[in-house]
Sequence to fold (446 residues):
Amino acid sequence: MSPLEDFSTLLPETAAANEKGHLVLGGCDAASLASEFGTPLYVFDEVTLRNSCSEYLTAFRQNYPDSRVIYAAKAFINRALAAVINEEGLGLDVASAGELTVAQSVGFPMEKVCFHGNNKQREELELAVSLGVGRIAVDSMYELDLLNEISMIARLRQKILLRLTPGIDAHTHKHITTGVVDSKFGIPMVSGAAEDCVARAIAAPGTELVGLHVHLGSLIFEAEPYTEAVSVVFEFAARMKKEYGLDFREFSPGGGFAVQYTRDAPSPSAAYYAEAISGAIASNCGEYGLHAPCLVVEPGRAIVARAGVALYRAGSVKIVPGVRKYVSVDGGMADNIRPALYGSRYEALIANKMNEEASERVTIVGRFCESGDVLVRDVDLPAVTAGDLVAVPVTGAYCIPMASNYNASLKPAVVMVKDGHPRLIRKRETYQDLMRNDVLVETERP
Ligand SMILES: Cc1ncc(COP(=O)(O)O)c(C=O)c1O
Fold:
């Protein structure tokens, strides 16, 4: 099997190999992209990106016509991406005023934005209210009171959801589990805090409570956590309707839909989640006598992960006889912290040797000063030498937005490719960028 066939579920949909044996993405030769834009380089395939948007929209609309898909910007947002997300008809979940500002700068419709976060700042809430964001997912009683005050000053009634912590374990990495009782996110259901918040939100003149939200975690491969969340939330909603007259018009089970990072771990389709969640809503509405609410899902990773491929240049190769062959590349944990942070697994290919069979087992490491800076452990590749181009697929989510300047390194460039045309959507940083906010002699204070 050629590397292209072998990696077909991990690479972007347009991936091909040309007569030179080079990986081709969106009609662009990866080796030419690396020469033109330098490495490390993040390449986003526009076709894959747009197709994931429509896969999620179609799957949820077909199974549950009154549904909305809002992209979780934390997975990766910049202006070009926000524009594509808008063109594809998705809304946006933002987690900071920064993400909100990016969206606003490209004219993203503010009514399609939901603002999340466990400690939104007063200025952030003021900005969101003044811009007219469609929903604010309130995370605590403290925030409810703050937002009520801000909305009243603005003489507005802000539509809100309450983000609840349902006490559900989504069986994922503990750093990306959010629905369990012991979580910094959301309003606990078990303690009675959620009920108090519902009562207070309904009575508050500055907020209009339109629904309930949960987010269980990320990389959830099974449907059960979602269907369990539907039961827990709908039982609660029915009780809140009876006791306080809650108008349960919207329900969001958050995001967290899994993607395939390695050949041995396939992920379910959007349709799998859509069918399960819709089925659970229908049966719970029947059981609790509720009208079917609008369903809002917030995929982040599932929209962008597969569209992205990171390209690195191999440099130093170190063989520890009988132990391991290390291949060092020109990026690493500063542009992709996920392996070091979560133990995440990736695969790799040699983008300039796509016609060659794997012949050795190597470990791809980054260039940063940490032993934990390992990008891909024990991967079978054709013989790798300095100058080869290492491609790491499925790097579209949570790499660039989590990138740092560790070791005073420069954040990589990002290009979007389509029909043979590369479009620079984020410039590589320069040393001037690095020192822009660095003050040597204090001449003025902001
Ligand atoms: C509230 C909320 N919605 C959606 C997401 C997106 O998750 P994922 O990228 O796994 O789909 C997150 C991720 O942390 C989140 O906190």
